[in-house]
Amino acid sequence: MRDALMNALKTVNDPELHRDLVSLGMIERAEMDGGLAHVKVNLTTPACPLKGKIESDVRAAVLAVPGVQDVRVTFGATVRAAAQPALPGVKHVVLVGSGKGGVGKSSVAVNLAASLARDGARVGLLDADVYGPSVAHMMGQPAARITANEDRKMLPLEAHGVKFLSMANLSPAGQALVWRGPMLHSAIQQFIKDAAWGELDYLIVDLPPGTGDVQLSLTQTVQVTGAVIVTTPQDVALIDAARAVDMFRKASVPVLGVVENMSYFVAPDTGHTYDIFGRGGSRKLGSEYPLLGEIPLDVEVRQDADQGAPAVLAHPDSAAAQALAGVARTLAGQISVRTLHSTLAELPDQLTVV
Ligand SMILES: Nc1ncnc2c1ncn2[C@@H]1O[C@H](COP(=O)(O)OP(=O)(O)OP(=O)(O)O)[C@@H](O)[C@H]1O
To answer: Which residues bind ATP (predicted)?
Structure first.
């Protein structure tokens, strides 16, 4: 009977990976209990954007097996590590960058991290925006201080299910950092390599805006899975975003996608939509960089950030939070596809990214 179930499951393809669940090794359990079939699918990320589709496809395929009256589908998830894992225990390092300041890069990084963690992933968040570190505040821990463990490794702080490190938790509050290039380089090295991150599926790195030394130093310090570029749809932001894309291309860091923030505004009183910065402009960056999502301007995103609670957790039903959660899942799916692409010896020709 198990063979019949497995044969049926061989007809179900992962909708993103375009391969059947059996050959992808995603079927953890397939058993009959009377007329009830139990199937456990081990996803490649807990933030799988197409879990609902996989569930209905599995159900339909298994229900067609003679003798099956009902199906119970359950899920687990194991994020597969990049071919060359970033750090011991860290499966993927994802950089969040922008060409220009103030476009909402830190807000996106914090919400991505919180959303992935809520979906069940093990997530770290590194604030590499050394000149204007805002992660500590946005995570609600501006006063916390970083300590070291017995091996003299920095212990990340933790909030909202996310481990994080920010320069703001090292220096006295309100004091500016006057570190120069080489010191910054070694500070970032330490944040990455001399910290006890433990086992992480995703380490999200909030970069400083622009295309300077810190960004380059990071791409040289650690094997990075890819970068996400945050921009507003405004031309001046897009010109700078294109520069950031170019920098990553030159540093051989794949651009996993673009997030268009402050994409539009829906007036709460009239419901009218205003495209304040010109919606959809990020498509001008080129079709080879997938648009991971359009995040509306939303006063709650700003208020939640100020109060130290990511919008995806504080107001999960708002349009902005839903869009941010969608970005996190699309990104996780994108990483799964790329990882499979680079780790499978025999590539299916129809393997596509978003
Ligand atoms: N979608 C949004 N709706 C409303 N406010 C937003 C949105 N995104 C970001 N903001 C607000 O805009 C301001 C700038 O955001 P943020 O600090 O995330 O930008 P940044 O690109 O990281 O800036 P920098 O790197 O220059 O410090 C913050 O006050 C933030 O709360």
So the answer is: 99-106
List the domain boundaries for the chain.
2-77, 90-343
Binding site for ATP: which residues? 99-106
pLDDT over 80 (residue 158): yes
| Residue 349: per-residue pLDDT | 45
CATH class of the domain whose range is 2-77: alpha beta
Candidates 109, 106, 124, 132; CA nearest to 192 is 124
CA of residue 63 to ligand 1 center, whole Å: 49
How far, in Å, is the centroid of ligand 1 from the Cα of 257?
A: 19
Between 216 and 198, the higher pLDDT residue = 198
pLDDT (0 to 100) of residue 132: 80
The best mutation among 95, 302, 315, 318 to test binding of ligand 1, ranked by most ligand atoms within 8 Å of the C-beta, falls on 302
* CATH number of the 90-343 domain: 3.40.50.300
103 lines ligand 1 (CB under 6 A): yes
* Residue 52: closest CA among 333, 271, 246: 333
What percent of the chain clears pLDDT 70, i.e. is strictly above it?
A: 93
Separation of alpha carbons 170 and 164, rounded Å:
12
How much distance in Å is there from the Cα of 197 to the middle of ligand 1?
Answer: 26
ipTM value:
0.98
